[in-house]
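Quick one: C-alpha cells for this chain, please?
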Amino acid sequence: MTKAILTLEGMNQISGDVETGGDYVRFTAPDALDESQINGPHEGELVIDGKGERVVLTNYRTTDEGGCEITLRRIQPNVS
C-alpha cells in the first residue's frame, strides 16, 4: 500500500493508505470520518506521491478497528 492524503469537499483532510486499480482507488485510514457528512457523493482530491487527482466518493464504511475504508472513483478529465 502507498501513503496518501484525501481531502473531500467540506471535510478535513485525512491520511491513510491506498490501493489503486484502474478507475477506482481503495483508501483506508486509521480514523473514521463523521458519517453525518458522508451522505451523497462527495468530490475531492487524493494526493499520492505528491501528485493530486480529482476523485468522487462511491462507498464509505467504518472498520471494526475504528478506522474507515473508502472506495473512490477517479475523475478523468475531458479530452477534446
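The domain at 2-74 is CATH 2.40.10 (Thrombin, subunit H).
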